[in-house]
Amino acid sequence: MNLLLENIAKHVSLSNEEQERVLAFTETQHYKAKTILLKEGQVCTHSFFVLKGILRSYNIDENGVEHVVSFACPGWWIADMYSFLSQRPGQLYIEVNEDAEVLILSKENQEKLYLEVPKMERFFRILIENSLVANQQRLIDNMSFTAEARYDKFTKKYAELVHCLPQKQIASYIGVTPEFFSKMKARLLKK
Amino acid sequence: MNLLLENIAKHVSLSNEEQERVLAFTETQHYKAKTILLKEGQVCTHSFFVLKGILRSYNIDENGVEHVVSFACPGWWIADMYSFLSQRPGQLYIEVNEDAEVLILSKENQEKLYLEVPKMERFFRILIENSLVANQQRLIDNMSFTAEARYDKFTKKYAELVHCLPQKQIASYIGVTPEFFSKMKARLLKK
DNA sequence: GGAAACACTTAACCTAGATTAAGAAGTGGT
DNA sequence: ACCACTTCTTAATCTAGGTTAAGTGTTTCC
């Protein structure tokens, strides 16, 4: 059974024919860990739907420090949304964390899809809505909570992921340095 | 000329009849400064489109500290997106900053609108997309930049707004205390 | 299989920004 | 006009988290 169709079915119901149209517009690809699918300064012409493995997006600030924007495991989409939507050069990197199998949807094909299967417009609207809500929550959390509380939230929200991710990436996601993260974990263990 | 229709026209083109349908689903209201339109714990059943004045949304953390999530001036929408989309109790307050005239769209009417004027689904998708992009940028900025750089970005992005907002709200938006904000501004003046 | 590169830890020291407190300057309501 | 209330500022002190540096595994890859 196809993971993408399963996910779509959670939000809109497509006929068999529509399902086939959707799949016809996507392409499967396999990537090794550490493959970089998008670099800062490039236009994000495709978005990726993860079937297997883990991807992440991040930017690198003017001091060379990496900030993880998102992780994507199976069932999740990932892209530089700014760049993908505007078709302008973006600031994000997208990199394969663990050997991955992904479905690729080009911007072009997405536009065609909206025309041929209008229900997909609703589907993507809902995805973006959820993404906005999650993002806004993260903003609020970053402003309201200490690093410790953010880490706690993270381990609960991404319980399966935590064990597959290097610590420095978790540290980066919650917004602290690897050194402080290490110190914090040691402190938590004593309790 | 209607500000809402102007805004819609920037993204999708509606027939006169469709325009009338849209307006029929909204309702105009006037509010005095300091009116609270939504409180934490309530379900956000309406979203607001600002015609005149300024609104803001914020949450209050467990220490009683206010964190401004967004400002809305004429031409902008504001709502607790989590609550509005899920129709569950939210954590945001929405308050009138300056005497305001707003268009109100209920969740119910929005759903009807999607059915009667399907182009509006595209319109709102685009709004949400833009909102997501802006939000993600703010997250990255908060992780990458010092308070000073964030303030600088803020004054450029909201140049007209800066003069109408109390400093503590700007401080809250960029994520510092009013005291530190004050110190920082004094420091900037010396340069 | 060995060197280089990377991941993680620990510890000493440092700093951006928080906290507390107190005064000055608006602002609004009656 | 006046009192109450909130906003803004300044300054002393404090702390969460950053920086630097050094040491110990662990991968990776010729």
Automatic annotation (TrEMBL), chains A, B:
Residue intervals of the Cyclic nucleotide-binding domain: 13-122
InterPro entries, A to Z: cNMP-bd_dom, cNMP-bd_dom_sf, RmlC-like_jellyroll
Signal peptide residues on this chain, from the entry's feature table: none
Pfam family, one: cNMP_binding
The protein's name in its UniProt record: CRP-like cAMP-binding protein
Organism expressing this protein natively: Flavobacterium cauense R2A-7
